[in-house]
């Protein structure tokens, strides 16, 4: 990621069939954002979140296929964006626990979904927490981990999700404060100003939980039938109608341009019949969806193709998430025991000291259980400054680590090397501290060479 790019992240829970509300509120604006020259986009299928909402394993799997195919049919280009499944990123649940340990219970008590469930129980005379799982209660923390693991700058959401982004900011800011570092970028919610929460067929928010959705990929005949079933009031043809309280108008406005919307507003004032308004809505929605519907049908018929795309996407985003998790582990104290700060024993400790007796930074190379090769740069006090990505061969890791030391205090050369060592994550590293550490290592190397000669 270049320094002038902004990371944009969004996801959809895989607990149901995509509907018009998902398309207008999440899919369409997110894909439009992915085409920005200054954007690096992340799209994920939130299958962990789905477990909060459904206990049907087959539904979760089928929904994952349908939502993935929907994004691709709507124009997502997996070659230019990060497209992955939440459950393929093990760093997300690990980060969720780190964040859970710094999140105030009072913050979670104020979450809209939890409060609504409590209010519903109270109104029914039940215990306040009857039927409420810890998963529902902890939903905001998992969502914060989804966002913070990749240090997203913007999250396109519906208006009802703004609170979750604000909570992610609060949680990330608290972690940064408690552990004394700029570990997380604080995200911002981004909403299209002309798009409100889409109403369903009964006038309430379009939601699977209300069973009032209009599925996104209905055949044209069924789409028309669903739109004809939208609830309206009893005003007769010729009688002026209020567009600002109409479900028909709200959905139409979400698909129409400014001129079309203005024309429909005039038609409402002139007393358009509800049947005529519904027909106009169907024609406008179908005109946008029909070309994509054909692509969707073809994609759903090839699940193995989508699976390959998702696994490839997971591999790429983990190159961003793994280095950050290593840094966070160090921050919270989950560290190897042979790296206890202040140890004065052993060869490793002696290697930290220069001939003048002052402590040196360290550049360590090692092999993990996955068979891959890594290196890391530590400050003189043992703080982790840089954790490399995985390398297939030790010579590749060694070449880059040696080049970093040789670069010394050359900031331009170091920036170029960091983009090879930790692609996409270089922008969140403590660059000034890395340059200072490498400069000391190079100076010590030159001093030893001079003494030898």
Automatic annotation (TrEMBL):
ATP binds at residues 13-15, 21-22, 158-160, 198, 205-209. Keywords: Aminoacyl-tRNA synthetase, ATP-binding, Cytoplasm, Ligase, Nucleotide-binding, Protein biosynthesis. Its EC number is 6.1.1.2. A motif ('KMSKS' region) lies at residues 205-209. The keyword Cytoplasm applies. The keyword Aminoacyl-tRNA synthetase applies. One of its GO terms (cellular component) is cytosol. A motif ('HIGH' region) lies at residues 14-22. It catalyses: tRNA(Trp) + L-tryptophan + ATP = L-tryptophyl-tRNA(Trp) + AMP + diphosphate + H(+). Homodimer. This is Tryptophan--tRNA ligase. It comes from Dokdonella fugitiva. The lineage of its organism: Bacteria, Pseudomonadati, Pseudomonadota, Gammaproteobacteria, Lysobacterales. The gene is trpS.
């Amino acid at each position: 990621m270049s320094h002038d790019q902004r990371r944009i992240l969004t996801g959809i829970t895989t607990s149901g069939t995509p509907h018009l509300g998902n398309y207008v509120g999440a899919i369409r604006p997110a894909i439009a954002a992915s085409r920005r020259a200054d954007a690096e986009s992340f799209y994920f299928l939130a299958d962990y979140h789905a477990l909060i909402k459904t206990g049907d394993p087959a539904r979760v799997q089928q929904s994952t296929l349908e939502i993935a195919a929907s994004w691709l049919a709507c124009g997502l280009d997996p070659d230019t964006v990060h497209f992955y499944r939440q459950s393929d990123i093990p760093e997300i649940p690990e980060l969720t626990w780190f964040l859970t340990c710094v999140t105030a219970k009072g913050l979670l008590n104020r979450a809209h979904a939890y409060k609504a469930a409590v209010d519903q129980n109270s109104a029914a005379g039940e215990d306040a927490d009857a039927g409420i799982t810890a998963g529902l209660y902890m939903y905001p923390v998992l969502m914060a981990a989804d966002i913070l693991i990749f240090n997203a700058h913007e999250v396109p959401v519906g208006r009802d999700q703004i609170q979750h982004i604000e909570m992610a900011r609060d949680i990330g800011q608290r972690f940064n404060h408690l552990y004394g570092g700029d570990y997380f970028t604080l995200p911002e919610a981004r909403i299209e100003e002309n798009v409100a929460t889409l109403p369903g067929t009964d006038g309430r928010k379009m939601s699977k939980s209300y069973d009032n959705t209009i599925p996104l990929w209905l055949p044209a005949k069924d789409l028309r039938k669903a739109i004809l079933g939208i609830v309206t009031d009893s005003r007769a043809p010729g009688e002026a109608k209020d567009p600002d309280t109409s479900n028909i108008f709200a959905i139409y406005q979400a698909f129409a341009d400014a001129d079309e919307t203005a024309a429909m507003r005039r038609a409402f004032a002139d007393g358009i019949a509800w049947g005529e308004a519904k027909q106009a809505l169907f024609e406008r929605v179908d005109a946008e969806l029909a070309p994509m519907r054909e692509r969707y049908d073809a994609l759903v018929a090839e699940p193995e193709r989508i699976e390959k795309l998702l696994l490839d996407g997971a591999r790429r985003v983990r190159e961003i998430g793994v280095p950050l998790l290593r840094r966070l582990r160090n921050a919270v104290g989950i560290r190897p025991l042979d790296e206890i700060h202040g140890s004065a024993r052993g060869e490793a400790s002696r290697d930290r000291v220069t001939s003048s007796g002052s402590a040196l930074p360290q550049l360590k190379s090692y092999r993990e259980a996955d068979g891959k090769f890594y290196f890391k740069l530590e400050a003189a006090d043992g703080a982790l400054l840089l954790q490399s990505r995985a390398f297939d061969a030790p010579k590749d890791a060694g070449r880059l680590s040696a080049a970093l030391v040789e670069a010394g205090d050359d900031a331009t050369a170091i920036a170029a090397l960091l983009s090879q060592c930790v692609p996409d994550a270089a922008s969140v590293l403590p660059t000034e501290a890395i340059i200072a550490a490498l400069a000391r290592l190079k100076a010590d190397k030159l001093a030893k060479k001079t003494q030898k000669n």
